[in-house]
Amino acid sequence: MYEVLKRDGLAKRGRLQTVHGVIETPVFMNVGTAAAIKGAVSTEDLQEIKTQVELSNTYHLHVRPGDVVVKELGGLHKFMVWDKPILTDSGGFQVFSLAGLRRIKEEGVYFQSHIDGRKIFMGPEESMQIQSNLASTIAMAFDECPSSVADRNYIEKSVERTTRWLARCKKEMERLNSLPGTINPRQLLFGINQGGICEDIRIRHAKEIAAMDLDGYAVGGLAVGESHEDMYRILDAVVPHLPVDKPSYLMGVGTPANILEAVDRGIDFFDCVYPSRNGRHGHVYTNGGKLNLFNARYELDAGPIEEGCGCPACRTYSRAYIRHLLKAKEMLGMRLCVLHNLYFYNTMMEEIREAIEKGSYKEYKTKKLAKMAGQEV
């Protein structure tokens, strides 16, 4: 059950009750594609850095180790020893990202595995079956994410097919949740809005999927090459047509600034690889902007990544030491940067929730953006 606790303009402070615990929103989901956060981050670390939701990838876990293997071991929660909510994306994004290795048909998508080249078929039913085997808290509907530069005619046909696929996903999930051998018979289903950067197609699709009474709604197909201005324009157009009493999720987004702007437009779920990917390359987020710890200026810097930060890296280690680790290609340096970045994101979401509760979100957003840009307000 999802409940909106407070509104501040379009910004929502909500709470989603799930079989694996409560999700306080707005929330940033920490991305663990193959059931682990890249950068040697353990499940115990996730607890320490205030992670609410872990996100894993249906396609990648189907390829390796195999969703049937995970089911045999009791589902994804037992497999990775994580007792809080997990969202699994549907494999639909791989329809976009593995464009050179797939063929799309009405029944589904034919892939070549990016690992060993073997043939894989995934359609709505297969995606739901894999996600049911994984037993995640929230399953995403199988969709196609069209390119932001695709022509209008292609986008229209793609969105119509995604709607048909969604109806098949819903029917299959209801069937799977009714079976006696299902690990999580209370698995939730989120549908995905598509339509490129065409406002009218997006709005029409939002109305169609809103009528299907799903557990939540995502806006997909953004942050795939379009400008930030186009992203915000589409959110302004689409979010008002999604049910306000259901969670809204902006997939694959994004930077701290993207998140702050999207919350202001009514979005309350986010995920992105930026904090972990940037951390693995020595780029760390602070309230004063992003730092590159490879820079020589930090060679003798005995201070933490950010003063006052409570993450495991900042509580103990200096910028100089972490820079040394990165330069020496020691895994610990990468790990500490990833932990810091995820803690920064999770803490920012706490601040966002608090600001909405106080009715001061716009003021918070303005100050946060200015501070991260190195400006005074």
UniProtKB/TrEMBL annotation:
* PANTHER family linked to this entry: QUEUINE TRNA-RIBOSYLTRANSFERASE (PTHR46499:SF1)
Q: What does this protein do?
A: Catalyzes the base-exchange of a guanine (G) residue with the queuine precursor 7-aminomethyl-7-deazaguanine (PreQ1) at position 34 (anticodon wobble position) in tRNAs with GU(N) anticodons (tRNA-Asp, -Asn, -His and -Tyr). Catalysis occurs through a double-displacement mechanism. The nucleophile active site attacks the C1' of nucleotide 34 to detach the guanine base from the RNA, forming a covalent enzyme-RNA intermediate. The proton acceptor active site deprotonates the incoming PreQ1, allowing a nucleophilic attack on the C1' of the ribose to form the product.
Q: Entry's InterPro entries?
A: ArchSynthase1/Queuine_TRR, TGT, TGT-like_sf, tRNA_ribo_trans-like
Q: Name one GO cellular component term.
A: cytosol
Q: Show the segment(s) annotated as RNA binding.
A: 252-258
Domain named tRNA-guanine(15) transglycosylase-like: residues: 11-372
Indicate what this protein is called per its UniProt record: Queuine tRNA-ribosyltransferase
Report which reactions are catalysed by this protein. Answer: 7-aminomethyl-7-carbaguanine + guanosine(34) in tRNA = 7-aminomethyl-7-carbaguanosine(34) in tRNA + guanine
The protein's Enzyme Commission number: 2.4.2.29
The answer to whether UniProt assigns keyword Glycosyltransferase to this entry is yes
Name the gene for this chain. Answer: tgt
Residues bound to Zn(2+): C309, C311, C314, H340
Reported cofactor(s): Zn(2+)
Q: Where does substrate bind?
A: D89, S90, G91, G92, F93, D143, Q194, G221
Q: Which HAMAP family match?
A: Q_tRNA_Tgt
